[in-house]
Prior knowledge:
The protein is of the alpha/beta class. It is built from 19 helices and 20 strands. It is globular.
Amino acid sequence: xxxPALCAKAVSKRFGRINALDDVDFVLxxxxxxxxxxxxxxxxxxxxxxxxxxxxxxxxxxxxDGREIDCHNPKDAIRCGIATVQQHPELVxxxxxxxxxxxxxxxxRASFLSGIDRSVxxxxxxxxxxxxxxxxxxxxxxxxxxxxxxxIIAILQAIAGxxxxxxxxxxxxxxxxxxxxxxxxRLMNTLRASGISILYITHRLEEVMEIADRFSVFRGGRMxxxxxxxxxxxxxxxxxxxxxxxxxxxxxxxxxxPAQLGELVLDVRNLRHQRLFSNVxxxxxxxxxxxxxxxxxxxxxxxxxxxxxxxxxxAGSVELNxxxxxxxxxxxxxxxxxxxxxxxxxxxxxxxxxxxIFNITLANLGRASSxxxxxxxxxxxxxxxxxxxxxxxxxxNVTMPVSGFSGGNQQKIVVAKGLFADADVYIFVEPTVGVxxxxxAKLYGLMRELAKTSGVIVMSTDCDEAHGISxxxxxxxxxxxxxxxxxxxxxxxxxMAGIMGDATHA
Length: 506
């Protein structure tokens, strides 16, 4: 009988009164890609952190290659053959791929006086690429690499030791294009063929059917089921419904009727930013959600930042409520009534070491402070708890540092911050990256609720999202706006407009 790569038996973990994991049994076979699914708070992140040595289990047994292990920190996990690539890999931007892969392991006999022999690093890196072939130039600096190349460097860094047999990948495709995703999947198949077992965490359910050999569903701290993609197809099951434990209704709320639209709130004419996008024009009414679809590099991120005052415009005009505005900073945009939920929440949307209360109230300090300028602490906490409940924050602890929340819950805090801002125009960029299917439906519902009194713009590299949530939509293709001949794009027309520059191939 073949010994599995990893076996967990009755693993449990509590945080105070919260039972995060309850008697979880799990098996990872050798050379297997095994996906972990579950809504935020289901327990999968806790399980992964126990395996990677971030948390210590309360009880249970974990075995690697049939040997019981007990990890008290990440170094213990690595010694036991378990390596983890986090959702946002921490790489040194000024260093080359070689230097990042062997960071801290430059010399077998490192000392204060020993130098770094870069020819040795190159040889070791080339040997690694011979084991796991992938097209990448390791001599380039990280800051010059694409998102998928940085992900590959992080993976090579994790498996550089010959003893690594289990690789944990946390949301590795969250910032990748479809083409880049295929590059990553080819590397994963190479790793699988070499005998390395992969635990794959993702909220993109279609990827599970494409890359995973098996998947396990976590719900309420328990491991509910383990299946193969083929079993799902044979039984005509819904992964989303397995995760939620209930029948999944429509993910997107009903679109607004033309009669429900209010007055013109935003009028953008011939907006341009250097060579990133040009001559973008659109109107937005209260009660309306406008979708903007574009691939990575299309200009959607830059367009959002121009509207928010984070980037300067070269030409064009913006009118808000009939009055021309030209915010030179996010502070000016907020004051005018424009709020941005950015695509990179960790860098642009949150102060990770501060509490949810601090982050939620930061966008409207006038509302958060008394006439004398003192923070209204009790009122701010009540409001933060109210908005945390509306976005279903889990755990609903508004005093803990934001860094302690999962990626999906961090995104919810940014949305709650937008609710507190009480703006006229809300701009959402990649609003559901790292957010599970259940929470995604709730966030879409919140956007529709916001649109009742404001105008909402959703910019996304996910065509289904940009089309599904919006009343109208247009595409950006290499900085050029592509609009429908009639009033509304179909989903396929919008997709073709965003990836080919026109809708004629739909």
